[in-house]
Each structure stands twice: as C-alpha cells, then as structure tokens.
Amino acid sequence: MEFALAYPPFPDAWKDLQIAEDCGFTSAWFFDSQLLYSDVYVCMALAAEHTKKMKLGTAVAIPSSRLAPVTAHSIATINQIAPGRVILGIGSGFTGRNTMGLPPLPIATLRSYVESTRRLLAREEVPFHEGEHRGWMRFLHPDHGYINLKDQIPIYMAASGTKVTELVGEIADGWITPTIDPGQLSAGRKALEVGALKAGRAPGEMPIVSMITACVLRGGESPVSPRVLRRVGPSLVLLFHALWERNLGLVGALEAPLKERLRRYREEYVDKMKTPADRRYLEIHEGHLIYLKPGEERFVDEEMVRNFSCTGSAEEVIARIRAAEAMGVKQVGFQVAGDAREMIEELSREVIAKY
After folding, report:
1. Residue 266 CB: number of other CB atoms within 10 A?
2. Which of 105, 141, 220, 277 sits at 20 to 30 Å (Cα–Cα) from 51?
3. Could you give the 3-state DSSP secondary structure of residue 167?
4. Domains, the chain
5. How confident is the model at residue 238 (pLDDT cuts 50, 70, 90)?
6. Cα-based torsion angle of the residue sequence 98, 100, 104, 110 in order, rounded to the nearest 10 degrees
7. Can you give the pTM of this predicted structure?
C-alpha cells in the first residue's frame, strides 16, 4: 500500500510535503477548484521544485476550466520540473463547476477531453473546433525544454457513478474514488471491468486510489472532539453538499443512510440562509474541505464520523485500509484539513510505520 496526501492547494504546501516525503508519503494530490483554492499548477510547480521523489497529481482537472491543450501543456511543464513524477487526474467536475452554478459535464465531453489530452501528450496532431471553426493542434516545441513529453504522464480519472466508472475502465490509466467502503469498491471494480472489456483491455490491472479522511484517536478521545472535527468534519459535510447538489454519483449510495440528516441539514441550515436561493450554492461550498462553517458541526455526530471517515484507534484505521487493499486499492490519499503537520506526523507514526 502507498500513502498519499490530498491538498486544497496553497503556495506553501511544499513545506509540509518536504516533511511528508521523509515520513513515508509517496504522493501528493492537489484539488483543482478555481474559486476555492490557489492555482493548482503553481502549487504543484513549487512542490515539484522542493521534493525529490514524491509523485504529484491533480485531483482533479475539470475539462471546462481549461482547454485540453492548456491542461496538457500545464501538466507537461510540471513534468519538466519533476520528470516522471507527475499524474494528471481528470474528472467531470464538482466544486470547480458547482461554485459557478453549473452541473457536472456530460460523459461524452469527458471522454473527448481525455482522449484529446492524451493524444497531445503523445505528440500527436489533434482536431480542434470552436463554433464553426475547425483546425488541428500539436505541440510545436516539445524538445526545447519548455515541456517534458518524454517521461510518460499517466491519466487517472475520478468517478463515483457507474457509467463514468465504466469510462474510467475504458480509457484511463487509474481510478480515483472517494471511498474505501468494500461494497462501493466492489461495485466500482465491476464497472471498471465492464469498461475495460469494451476497450479490449485486461480487467483488474488498473491502479485504484482511494481519497479519504482519517484521524487516529488519542487515548480516551471522543470521535467528535474539536480536534477530530477539525480534521474530518470538512470532508463529512461535503457529503451534504454533494447530496444537496445531487452530485458526484453519490445520491443512490448515500441518500438512504443520510436521509434524516440531510433533511435536518436542509431545513435547519440551508433553508435558514440569508443568501438568495439562486446563489445559495456559493454559501454551501464556502470552507469546502478546509473548515466547518459555524453551525455545520451539529450535523456531524459520532455515528457519522465512525461510518464515513477512517477514524478510530491505529489498529482500527489500519484494519480498514487493509480491507480496502484486499479490494484492489493501491494507494490511500488522506485529505488534509486542520493542522497538516500534526496529521502528517500522526499518520506516519501510527499508520504508515505500523502497516
């Protein structure tokens, strides 16, 4: 099992990653959401310059945020700084689109974008259209030190819904999922295999990256202590954000177990916002994966922490990760919230060193 960090990008993240690299973390993933965080590629460039072996990836680039050649040249520029240490993660869009009032992109758009980006990174000429205009594009100076196309850049895709996960199996090099739940992983693997068989690829060989939130409890510590809520709370209220938005392919899997909490969240929190209804999504996503807004903490109880985060004793956390490994997960990415240094040192000492 490999261990990674998943960051809301900010320029000084590299300072944490230098420590993480020495603590056994092998990868760092950076979220791409232009209205929430710093620019993902600027932060990746700084991390690339200040780390030695750590792999760096986007989690995830959204097609509508940048043209395919822009994404291709950005990730290839990072590859010039950190040759062979770069992964391009792509997805249909969550906050990168929802914070502008837009839904996820259609599967056909996602497919076309991934295929165009892959062909550009392979030095091919790719058709391009804008309105009525048609043309071709390719990198003109691939060997002049501006970008690195010699070292392969794998393309991973984030997916939760069945159809999108099938597409991952068909065209991607890896699958990014927000769960280590055995049932959801099993369903996801079946979808991957369906997609792989469509494309004539060998099923079961694709790397799986699970991005989760985790906290190792201290002796006698409550799962809803302030420290734990600072760590895992932002990821847990994300579930309410996603269900309220009807997004991420999570509705079918999570609406039943969270139905009553979601009702309370809507009636006691969302419906009482002073923000106009047509702009309420802006307030919903404030603090996304960074902090809990005042009042959100009352919707995160001990049962939710236990069921929807990887929180418990070191032994309990390790057992859940081992169960995910048995389902084919090759890497666990811990979402960074709260005190990043404390989290890095804790997970290194209590999980990585004992795994």
Report:
1. 14
2. 141
3. helix
4. 2-221+310-352 (3.20.20.30), 222-309 (no CATH)
5. very high
6. -130
7. 0.96
